[in-house]
Amino acid sequence: MFFKIFVITAIFKVVTGQTRLDPLVNADVGLIKGLRGDDGDYSMFLGIPFGKVDEENPFSAATPYPKFDNTFEAFNDTTVCPQVEESQGTITGTPDCLVLNVYVPFSASSSNRLPVLVWIYGGGFMYGDGNRYLYNPSFLMTTMWTNFVKYGDPTPQTSDLIQIQWTPIKNLSQIPYLNIDSELSLGGRPFHRRVTFWDLFYRANYDNLLTAQNPLEI
Questions:
Q1: Percent of the chain at pLDDT exceeding 70
Q2: Which residue did the predictor score with more confidence, 98 or 17?
Q3: How confident is the model at residue 15 (pLDDT cuts 50, 70, 90)?
Q4: What is the pLDDT of residue 212?
Q5: In Å, how far are 124, 166, 188, 201, 212 from 196, measured between CA atoms?
Q6: Residue (of 159, 132, 130, 131) closest to 146 by Cα position
Q7: Residue 52 phi/psi, 5° resolution?
Q8: Of 37, 135, 181, 42, whose CA–CA distance to 164 is shortest?
Q9: Which of 6, 98, 139, 205 is at 20 to 30 A from 160, Cα to Cα?
Q10: How far is CA 66 from the centre of its chain?
Q11: What share of the chain is helix, strand, coil (3-state, %, to 5)?
Q12: Does this entry carry the keyword rRNA processing (predicted)?
């Protein structure tokens, strides 16, 4: 699918007291409205159908999806191909799952075309999907990886995006670690209970460890 024009249109809605800006593109198949990324300067267009499956013969070649009569709202990335839901052992999904997610930096436009990375999620042809909660171009992660390559430190300084700084290890009893979740946080000692157990075990058996001739005798 070729995106010809990238236009930001102001759709004024009251969402938690803020103005919402929805991105809109004019593609070969019609107008497609997306969402703004909430963790960086990019837009996302989710669940865009690109092919139709013959339900009577799902393994036959798919046909191109017809053009949209109205603006397609690309807000939903929950479509899953048929597979076994591991925790329940039940079959879930739909054969009509030929959709794609497109992530576009704000800097992209018809006059400023950028390289395109095409990525297909894994799963061994048995399970998986491309939802944005597992696979998204997190601006936070991109920034930290860039910092690590440039400075050897994912948080060399604080900013509006990265508001904490990972401090170096100074005391082995308090090992600072960076917890990367929906929000960044710092911890004092990873897996505290497990590490404490092995510390106590080591201290209690230190003499035996030094004098044992055969590890099986410990």
A1: 81
A2: 98
A3: very low
A4: 58
A5: 39, 23, 13, 9, 23
A6: 159
A7: -115, 140
A8: 181
A9: 6
A10: 29
A11: 15, 30, 50
A12: no
Beta-bridge partners for 51? 64
Q: How far apart are CA 206 and CA 191, in angstroms?
A: 22
What whole-number distance in Å separates Cα of residue 163 and Cα of residue 185? 9
The helix/strand/coil state of 16 is coil
Q: Write down the pTM of the prediction.
A: 0.58
Residue type, 81: C
The pLDDT value recorded for residue 209 is 64
Residue whose C-alpha is closest to residue 180's, from 155, 209, 206, 212: 155
User: In this structure, what token pair is assigned to residue 212?
Assistant: 């044992």
Within 13 A of 132's CA, how many CA atoms are on the CB side? 22
CA distance 179 to 192: 14
Phi, psi of 49 (to 5 degrees): -75, 135
**Assigned token pair, 147:** 């910092």
Query: At 76, which amino acid appears?
Result: N
- Residue 134 structure tokens: 């597992």
Amino acid (1-letter code) at residue 33: K
